[in-house]
Amino acid sequence: MILDKEKFKSDYVRKLMNSFAEEIEGASKLHKYFALGGLVRDYVTENWVNTNKYYLESGEKQIYYFSMEFLIGRLLGSNLLNLGIRQVCKDGLTELGISLEELEEIENDAGLGNGGLGRLAACFLDSMASSGIPGHGCGIRYRYGLFEQKIIDGYQVEVPDYWLRDGNVWEIRKENKAIEVRFGGKIRIDYINNRMTFIHEDYEPVRAVPYDTPVVAYDKNMVNTLRLWSAEPIAWEFDFNTFSRGDYVKAEAYRASVEAISQVLYPDDSNWEGKLLRLKQQYFFVSAGLQSILRSYKKSGLPINELNKHIAVHINDTHPSVAVAELMRILIDEELLSWDEAWHITTDIMAYTNHTILSEALEKWPVDMFKNLLPRIYMIIEEINRRFCEALNRKWPGQWGRINNMSIINDGLVKMAHLAIVGSHSVNGVAELHTEILKHQELSNFYQFYPEKFNNKTNGITHRRWLMKCNPKLSNLITDTIGSSWIKAPIELNSLAKYKYDPAFQNKIASIKKANKANFSNLIKNKYGIVIDPNSIFDVQVKRLHAYKRQILNVLHIMHLYNKLKENPSLDILPRTFFFGAKASPSYHLAKQTIKLINSVATKINNDSSINDKLKVVFLENYSVSLAEKIIPCADVSEQISTASKEASGTGNMKFMMNGAVTVATLDGANVEMKDAVGEDNIVIFGLKANEVISYNKYGGYSSWDVYNNDMRVNKLITQLVDGTLSHSRAEFKNIYESLLMFNDEYFVLKDFDAYAKAHERVDSLYRNNTKWNEMCIMNIAHSGVFSSDNTIKQYSKDIWGTRELKLLPEMD
Ligand code: 26W
Q1: According to the model, what pLDDT value does residue 813 have?
Q2: Whose C-alpha lies nearest to ligand 1, atom 4?
């Protein structure tokens, strides 16, 4: 948008006045932030209204991305960037004596996600809008996001993340768009007008109220919508005179049970109550989302049997897959279509992405729980399954083992991944290797039955947040060097490859990294009191804490470097600072122990002056989107070291690459494609291959005791876990010790140790050659464009959704 500085200044002063009855002099930072956010929102509303109107009137196909998680982070900076008004606002604010950067830091992260899956959903929203695709998000407005992590005595302590405490300037509550969602009760079957009719009785109603957040396109007049649902009790008239005390207690219990639905992201689901709540959450937002889509579709006057021409729904992992049955319910019970018509429309609308092969993420629900909570939906799933099993039996007559294995309902469980596959026309993995593993291992039966459904869509990241916003110096240098066309066509970053050998360009790249590192070092000093050397190699592993991601391999290797330095204090290794950032799921004991291990190693090493500051270890508390934006632009080395075959794709790997880090990687997930893009000279690959891991898992042949007995470095490291070197309590790291030895090292940490140590020796020697290192950084940036989520989303749009990329909205009157 075009905005003049003087106009901005007067708009801003007025907004502050109108919102808080304050002038700049007396206003708090919070109020200054809210005035700015509110003003930016005002600037987008007209386009937002016009976009919605256009979608409604034109019948343009729209895609709804259903996801339990949207890990958005902060919106002020990215909205200013996409609107193209960041500089003018910054200059205007400076003249008013306000620092834009300070205001940006006030915004609470919208942390409505755990990790990659939720962040991918947020990148996709940005890319859909910026590519002109009519696409919206649908999810839950959790009152509490993922917990805030505090590190106390080296342990993770979880604190509730009440991100809405100060209010949320971006969202608009749409009271008039509320929907009723029904739980429990029973189904009575009746014949009305000769049609079998299913009547839902004695159910518990829940009111779903949408909160809409604008999703602003980059340099386009389109604004899409992220709609998050909040659960509230259906209003009831409460009258002390007519209600007895018992009624009051009942009403309060109802209110609490309803509000619990949108209270918190991932309530602990290790018990029945937790599981039930999670299933309730899933049906809640899916039902509200689909009902509201149908309601606005019907407003447009288009016929119901053409729904699939105008609407697509994406199922982000198995969590929202109850959407298949809910859409069937709406089409059959409410729109009175036949089963076959409804099934054709439903499967044409639905598409499913699988994000992990770890079985814990493939949701399964006990039949009893499911039937009681969602009686009509359960009936529909039974019928879908009956027809599906019949079709299987026609293809593979009498192969009961296989049919049972593929059945949606089996072993007393409803298998949501199976429902998603059967009810969608597209099933995709998130990196080439992952999709191959799905096709030939995890889902091979389904692939044989439905080969046409399976396809790959390698993940991506929005280069607007993960380069332009988080690393403005680098972004400006790129534009100064190759022009600005890469911003709209990130693949054109590859023009940078020409400058690979240009010493002047190399120096500029190196000095930007250095400046970023120096800034971050100051931040660390102020926040943690740890002094780090900005000239040391910044070696970073930030991601969820999980055994398969192998933070343990990294920390064991750091201990190994420390052991070497203790043996030989004059050992010639380049100074390194190792950064970790990771949250562990509150009930995941081994993961929490790993955090304590990292912190114990940090304490030991950082306080040992005999190693001359050659090693430093920093655990960054409360890893989040905003912290990622700070650390990624300063990384020299990116650690992507999961056990091959286990990481579906990874997206952090791409963010580091785009900011010019060199990746130490196993051939897992999207690392494989990163290697192909950048060339094997510009990435450091090590370790077992996916097929080797799969083969060990199937046929055996690995014993971690062998490594322990034969490699004395490993032997010493394992011993140090339990001999008091790191903790007064020898039991402190017992579970880690046992997982590596007694349970035969499920993730091949010890097996890959030697290869990993050698990979790091290579890093050390590559870094010594400044010129070579800078060349590698340049090549990584130059070949990262293919991993822009704009590229990914265009493939989804073309191959799966059938949506169009609109250039601009026509001007509306
Ligand atoms: C309790 C069910 C459950 C379990 C795990 C829900 C969610 C998860 C993860 C947080 C899912 C996740 O984030 N998967 C990641 O998805 C990314 C986007 O596709 C991939 O890049 C990562 O490899 C994958 O781990």
Answers
A1: 45
A2: 361
698 belongs to the catalytic site: no
Alpha carbon distances (Å) from 405 to 20, 229, 418, 733: 62, 35, 10, 39
Which range is least confidently modeled, 271-285, 319-333, 730-744, 782-796? 271-285
Q: How many CB atoms lie within 10 A of CB 580?
A: 26
Residues 93 and 117 in one domain: no
pLDDT: which is higher, 695 or 270: 695
**Which residues constitute the domain of residue 49?**
1-58+75-108
Ligand 1 center–CA 436 separation, angstroms: 18
Q: Which of 117, 315, 358 has most ligand 1 atoms within 8 Å of CB, for mutation?
A: 117
Atom of ligand 1 lying closest to residue 113 CA = 10
Cα 345 from Cα 238, distance rounded (Å): 43
- The reported pLDDT for the residue numbered 243 is 60
DSSP-based three-state secondary structure for 148: strand
Q: Are residues 404 and 474 in the same domain?
A: no
Q: Which two tokens stand for residue 312?
A: 């697509």
- What are the tens digits of pLDDT across the range 525-584? 998 888 999 999 999 999 999 999 999 999 999 999 999 999 999 999 999 999 999 999
355 a catalytic residue: yes
Structure tokens at 179: 């929907």
Residue of 32, 549, 751, 794 with catalytic role: 549
Residues 98 and 185 in one domain: no
Same domain, 127 and 20: no
Nearest CA owner, ligand 1 atom 3: 361
> H/E/C letters for each residue in 732-744?
CCHHHHHHHCCCC
| Top-confidence residue, 643 or 249 | 643
Residue 323 maps to which CATH number?
A: 3.40.50.2000
Domain co-membership, 160 together with 30: no
Q: Is residue 713 part of a domain?
A: no
CA of 583 relative to ligand 1 center, distance in Å = 14
**Domain presence at residue 724:** no
Catalytic residue among 74, 227, 544, 794: 544
